[in-house]
Amino acid sequence: MKIGLSDAAATEALAEDVAASLPADVGGWTVLLTGELGAGKSTFARALIRALGHDGAVPSPTYTLVEPYSLDRGQVYHVDLYRIAAEEELHFLGWSDLDDGCRLIEWAERAPGLSATADLKLTLRYDGEGREAEIAGLSARGADVVASLPINPNT
Ligand SMILES: Nc1ncnc2c1ncn2[C@@H]1O[C@H](COP(=O)(O)OP(=O)(O)O)[C@@H](O)[C@H]1O
Ligand SMILES: [Mg+2]
């Protein structure tokens, strides 16, 4: 499903819609964010983390790789794979420690194998001054979330 995002507030509103469509406990979910530099991945991630209940700053995980949040709706791990050179590096970074939480992954294209076990994939592209999002359900429950988004795909 493709969605026009005319400004950053529209990207944030989409994140809020996704948060509202996810289950009360987001543990075990994986959301992939892809798109080139400046496409709005961090804007979406920040808004989603806040919509899930975080009140405060959302620092970039570019250097720490993972920023954890303990929220009412579960553990959330904000991950940025920009600095990952090879998918195998994930194993050395304690990837399996993130199993309990919701993994929100920027630069997911750096680890193509993640698609096999992910639930949602958001692809962001430049579109004039704004952006276009394409959201896809990669699992059955992910497809249910996409289907329940309050967005008219024809607009
Ligand atoms: N839909 C949008 N339309 C226009 N600008 C946007 C949109 N979404 C985000 N932006 C802006 O684009 C810039 C880069 O966003 P950012 O989330 O940091 O991108 P990324 O993490 O993909 O590199 C920010 O200034 C942000 O406000
Ligand atoms: Mg970013």
Describe this structure in words.
The protein has 155 residues and is α/β, with parallel strands linked by helices. It has one domain: Rossmann fold. Helix content is 24%, strand content 28%. The protein contains four helices and seven strands; from the N terminus they run E-H-E-H-E-E-H-E-E-E-H. The chain has helices spanning 8-21, 41-51, 89-92, 140-147; strands spanning 2-5, 30-34, 66-71, 74-80, 102-106, 120-127, 130-137. It has a seven-stranded mixed beta sheet. Strand 6 and strand 7 (130-137) form a beta hairpin. Helix 1 (8-21) crosses helix 2 (41-51). It starts with a strand and ends in an 8-residue tail after the last helix. The model has no long low-confidence stretch (mean pLDDT 94). Adenosine-5'-diphosphate binds at residues 5, 7-8, 10-11, 35, 37-43, 130-131. The site of adenosine-5'-diphosphate (ADP) has 15 residues, from helix 1, helix 2 and strand 7.
Could you give the topology of this structure?
Layout: E1 2-5, H1 8-21, E2 30-34, H2 41-51, E3 66-71, E4 74-80, H3 89-92, E5 102-106, E6 120-127, E7 130-137, H4 140-147
Parallel strand pairs: 2-5, 2-6, 4-5
Antiparallel strand pairs: 1-7, 3-4, 6-7
Helix pairs in contact: 1-2
Bound molecules: adenosine-5'-diphosphate and magnesium ion (MG).
Q: How far apart lie the N and C ends?
A: 11 Å
- Per DSSP, the total helix count is 4
CATH superfamily: P-loop containing nucleotide triphosphate hydrolases
The SS-based structural class is: alpha/beta
What hetero molecules are in the model?
adenosine-5'-diphosphate, magnesium ion
CATH class group: Alpha Beta
Query: Could you name the ranges where pLDDT drops below 50 across 5 or more consecutive residues?
Result: none
C-alpha Rg (nearest Å): 14 Å
At CATH level 3, the topology is: Rossmann fold
Whole-number tally of structural domains: 1
What spatial order of strands do you see in the largest sheet? 1-7-6-2-5-4-3
Shape: globular
Helix content: 10-25%
Report the average pLDDT across residues.
Answer: 94
